[in-house]
């Protein structure tokens, strides 16, 4: 299996999903508000169950292209959100995806840290050169999250995806490995450099 080690930050941690995450994961995908800005429409219970099964299978794929991780509080194993990385089939590029936090999550206000942890892993263990992300042009809270994650604005992709009955423009951001490394924290550099202190799950 190709499993991601637990990635710890100051305010949250990322880990692989396990079977006990089903209900919280399904709550996200079936929630009218939480799916508002995702690139998919809200799912019914059956669709969410199938999506969870596909996500659990990600570590068993070779080569692994999709990394959907659970966001947890530092000292609690309960899934309170998700964060993803989609490795593209060409070059050394990947896209950050699926940053969602449940209402009342104790890590709210620190979503950018989930992106930073996953970028440290991507630039380090996965040897990526470029990571990008995007948000709907009407999601006005996201620019400061992108900047806090160390991403710079790049372009507006017109009518990139269709949800809730209409097409949406997406604003994109990106960074490259040398640029991101220069502003990484010591903890992020430890992940990027594959420090031995990372315990595999």
Helices and strands, with pairings:
Layout: E1 7-8, E2 13-16, H1 22-29, H2 45-56, E3 66-72, E4 81-87, E5 93-101, H3 111-124, E6 130-136, H4 142-148, E7 152-163, E8 166-176, H5 177-181, H6 186-192
Parallel strand pairs: 5-6
Antiparallel strand pairs: 1-2, 2-3, 3-4, 4-5, 6-8, 7-8
Helix pairs in contact: 1-2, 3-6
Q: What proportion of the residues form beta strands (DSSP E)?
A: 25-35%
| Order of SSEs | EEHHEEEHEHEEHH
Spatial shape? globular
Helix content: 25-40%
Structural class call reads alpha+beta
Distance between the termini: 11 Å
**DSSP helix count?**
6
Ranges where pLDDT stays below 50 over 5 or more residues in a row are: 196-201
Q: Give the rounded overall mean pLDDT.
A: 92
Query: How would you sum up the major sheet?
Result: 8 strands, mixed
Q: In order across it, which strands form the biggest sheet?
A: 1-2-3-4-5-6-8-7
How much is the radius of gyration in Å?
Answer: 16 Å
Strand runs, count: 8
């Amino acid at each position: 299996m190709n499993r991601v080690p637990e990635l710890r930050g100051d305010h949250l941690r990322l880990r692989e999903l396990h079977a006990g995450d089903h209900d919280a994961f399904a709550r996200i995908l079936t929630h009218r508000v939480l799916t508002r800005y995702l690139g998919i429409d809200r799912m019914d219970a059956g669709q969410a169950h199938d999506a969870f099964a596909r996500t659990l299978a990600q570590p068993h794929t070779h080569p692994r292209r999709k990394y959907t991780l659970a966001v947890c509080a530092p000292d609690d194993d309960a899934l309170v959100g998700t964060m993803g990385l989609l490795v593209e089939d060409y070059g050394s590029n990947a896209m950050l995806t699926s940053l969602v936090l449940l209402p009342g999550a104790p890590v709210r206000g620190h979503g950018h840290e989930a992106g930073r942890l996953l970028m440290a892993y991507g630039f380090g263990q996965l040897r990526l050169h470029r990571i990008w992300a995007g948000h709907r042009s009407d999601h006005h809270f996201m620019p400061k999250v992108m900047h806090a994650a160390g991403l710079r604005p790049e372009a507006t992709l017109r009518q990139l995806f269709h949800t809730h009955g209409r097409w949406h423009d997406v604003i994109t951001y990106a960074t490259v490995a040398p640029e991101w490394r220069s502003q990484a924290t010591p903890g992020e550099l430890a992940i990027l450099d594959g420090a031995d202190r990372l315990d595999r799950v």
